[in-house]
Amino acid sequence: MGTAMPVHDSPPLPPVAVTAATPSAAAPTGPGRRPRLYVLDGLRLLAALYVVAYHYTAFAEHDPHPWGRPVHEVFPVFNRFSSYGFLGVQLFFLISGFVICMTAWGRTPKDFLISRVTRLFPAYWFAIAATTVFVLLAGGHWLRYGRGIDQFLTNLTMLQDPLKVSDVDGVYWTLWCELVFYLLFLVVVRAGLSYQRVVSFCGIWLVAGVISTGSGDSIVRTLTMPGQAPYFAGGVAIYLMHRYGPDLLLAGLTGLCWLLSLHQLATQLPEVSGHVGHHLQFGYAAAFVTACYAVLIAAALGRLDWIRWRGLTTLGALTYPLYLLHEDIGWGVILHLHDTVPAWALVGGVTAFFLYAAWLVHRYVERPLARYLKRGLSKPRPAR
């Protein structure tokens, strides 16, 4: 499957508010209220589109391929660029660490959990249903997994990964990583967010991930996430720069996350090279990851506050449903139309279709269902 991770396919970040938080009274050295970080919305969409490009124009592990011939023959030049699109997921994780820390500040554990449930599940449930219906109607041996009622129902819980049930769509593997991060960070939210506690959380998590590397214990590796933790923790550390200002400790923590990210990247590239059918250069991949860190740091320190186009908010909202819907349905459309539609026109048309579908899902599914869930989950409950 198309990803940089050992067992899964490739893919994004659930939509979250990206408005800068106001420092609490306990942080007198923190910055004043800053403008909304529109650049994060734009980065999320660019990351999602890069992942889409990776799946449509670089991922080669199909037999036969939806394009009817090797994908590098269909896109002989662009394929060399899009083959690194799996790195879009690393950018998603980095932004997720930043935004989750930002939006959790000042919230109760209950509020934090409700915000995560209402963000993750509405579009996800719709995507599962839409993908399943498409598969039943279109069929085809290009599908990587057999579908069944048990798989469908288990996927609704978003717990299919630990239950060893296949994802309805391969990109869903990232959602389990997000869930684990949320649950771990909930411990810090419960204790009360502060500079010291958040830094300690990141440091302990990173060290645990290093120690667990190579461990055969699935529970330990699930909690430490050595392949993903450096990106989540890096985003958290960069948010602390945004909130309190840069200092030597945060610079060192961010640098450690960056170095561990590069180490994990080096271990992942051989497998991803197999997914795309040619050797990937560590230097190019490392430059992309480094640029992701640099851009997020620049945003955190206010260097990109000049980006204030409000349309980025809408585009950023499309990221999650676009990600959830594009892969298997998109491959099915390509399979059935590649003989009659020119390749670039087909890729452009399919991508445009999913962007519009993502807007419809956001407007008519995500927002209404999120409001309903929030009202229901926010009602007071009996103490016992």
TrEMBL record:
One Gene Ontology cellular component: membrane
InterPro entries according to UniProt: Acyl_transf_3_dom (IPR002656), Acyltransferase_3 (IPR050879)
Alphabetized UniProt keyword annotations: Membrane, Transmembrane, Transmembrane helix
Residue intervals of the Acyltransferase domain: 39-361
Segments passing through the bilayer: 43-61, 81-102, 123-143, 171-191, 198-216, 222-241, 248-266, 282-302, 309-326, 341-361
Top-rank taxon, per record: Bacteria
A molecular-function term among this protein's GO annotations: acyltransferase activity, transferring groups other than amino-acyl groups
GO BP annotations, alphabetical order: lipopolysaccharide biosynthetic process
Database matches in PANTHER family: ACETYLTRANSFERASE (PTHR23028), ACYL_TRANSF_3 DOMAIN-CONTAINING PROTEIN (PTHR23028:SF53)
Name of the molecule in the record: Acyltransferase 3 domain-containing protein
